[in-house]
Amino acid sequence: MPLREIKINAATMIYRVVIEPGSISGVGKALRLLFPSTKTLLVSDLNVDRIYGQEVVKSLEAEKWQVTTVVVRPGERAKSLKKAAHLYDSAIAAGLDRNSPVIALGGGVIGDLAGFIAATYLRGVPLVMVPTSLLAQVDSSVGGKVAVNHPRGKNLIGSIYPPRLVLIDPKVLTTLPFRQIKAGLAEVIKYGIIADGAFFAWLEKNIDRLLATNIEALTDAVTLSVMNKARVVEADEYEVDYRRVLNFGHTIGHALEAATDYSHYLHGEAVMVGMAVATRIAHKLDIIGSEDAARILNLLQRIDLKDAPADLTAEAVIDKLRQDKKRRNGEIFFVLPQSVGSASVIAVSDQKLIREAVKTGMRLEGL
Ligand SMILES: NC(=O)c1ccc[n+]([C@@H]2O[C@H](COP(=O)([O-])OP(=O)(O)OC[C@H]3O[C@@H](n4cnc5c(N)ncnc54)[C@H](O)[C@@H]3O)[C@@H](O)[C@H]2O)c1
Predict the structure, then answer these.
(1) Rounded CA gap, 141 and 137, in Å?
(2) Which of 63, 125, 137, 225 has the most CB atoms around its CB within 10 Å?
(3) Which helix (H) or strand (E) holds 222?
(4) Is 239 a catalytic residue?
């Protein structure tokens, strides 16, 4: 399969996203072409390091890189200021200078954490993303958002700091747990719904191949997703307006995650239910026609939506929605689809309609 390359115009630089099956063994060479330094900080988590760490270190050392590796426990808790402090200590102890790249080898957690370090250590050192989860390949590694969490909320401390290079090897998805593949597909489908009707039609035809972890199909899906994300991010890198469409499904998704203490849903699973509920709201408000709404809901059902826990009430989810920063004067801002391939941010004030959509939607009824 040929190498695919997408160039992204960020405000401060142009960077490349390279999508190539097998490229994980070429990390060292790719970095050697870009940076004159001899030192690098490789950040990963235990799961990813166990499978790919050695191969990546070997490829770096073959190109004369002195590698300092920091491996954190898998999971969202690694995105903390405490862990960030530990990474700064390692960078300082290793004597990393302003030209020494930080490499994020892992899913979105590692990308956000290592990206935050790269953005702040010595006021910014080069960042290279080697995303290994589907979500990280199609979403978090592109667009420059980096962050750690605060006890009061997710991603409260961060920046927009574009990477110098994103190196995507779709083959690594063969070791990703199936539940994570399905959760990542939520973000893939999102691009089809909000920005690319032709991609959505392709997904309708190829969803079974994607669910079977077919690498050729996944490579196509990753490429088209990155192209779509690039288009949105180039139009509005700092999320003044248009970039907000990427939050499709996220208003309700975040509320579901928060109301269940981030322990019931994976992010993508909650977003999938959120996309279904938002589509239902759009349909009730006559913003989207019945045929397009049915196509969206059908595709989401084929991936398999996750039911809410038995003890979760609609009121608890609405409470979290009320605390959401996308709320103003009793109105809640939702990204709503207008058709398959387009969406916009719309303020909804009909509380009864929202309540009904959440209540039935989280139980997967009436969708
Ligand atoms: N910066 C952004 O624009 C952006 C966008 C969306 C999400 N995010 C962030 O991304 C994070 C979620 O990312 P995620 O879903 O990738 O979670 P994650 O990083 O926790 O990875 C999911 C799990 O898969 C494992 N894993 C990853 N790649 C693997 C592979 N190839 N083989 C085997 N196991 C593998 C990890 O160890 C982990 O257990 C959240 O913190 C979220 O806030 C950031």
Answers:
(1) 6
(2) 137
(3) helix 215-235
(4) yes
